[in-house]
Amino acid sequence: MDKVMRMSSEKGVVIFTKSSCCLSYAVQVLFQDLGVNPKIHEIDKDSECREIEKALMRLGCSKPVPAVFIGGKLVGSTNEVMSMHLSSSLVPLVKPYLC
Predict the structure, then answer these.
(1) Distance from the CA of 39 to the CA of which of 5, 12, 15, 83 falls in 20 to 30 A?
(2) Does residue 12 carry a pLDDT above 80?
């Protein structure tokens, strides 16, 4: 879990993904369209993939990817991020991290 917490604080917006996950890609594109350049961690390319997945689940992710952290805090996965975006609460949250 220490590795995940360290990785989630590397940048203002951090997304844990898998390279083959279409929902992860959709979340990445959303943030890029909002003008945010998130740090992407493709966990399937990490030798500790299983441990990272378990740590993300322990932190409260319903599914391990995509897992979005803003300001070092877990926001959630696709459903939470899209709900925030539709309710106009995502942009104010990422405003400090716009490119």
Answers:
(1) 83
(2) yes
Give the span between the Cα atoms of 61 and 56, in whole angstroms: 6
Task: For residue 51, give the H/E element and its range.
Answer: helix 49-59
For residue 13, what are the contacts with CB-CB under 8 A and spacing of at least 6? Answer: 31, 36, 37, 38, 39, 68, 69, 70, 94, 97
What local confidence, expressed as pLDDT, does residue 41 receive? 97
**Can you point out the beta strands (E) in the chain?**
13-17, 39-42, 67-70, 73-76
Report the DSSP beta bridge partners of residue 74. Answer: 69
The number of angstroms, rounded, from the C-alpha of 24 to the middle of its chain's C-alpha atoms is 8
Q: How confident is the model at residue 99, as a pLDDT?
A: 78
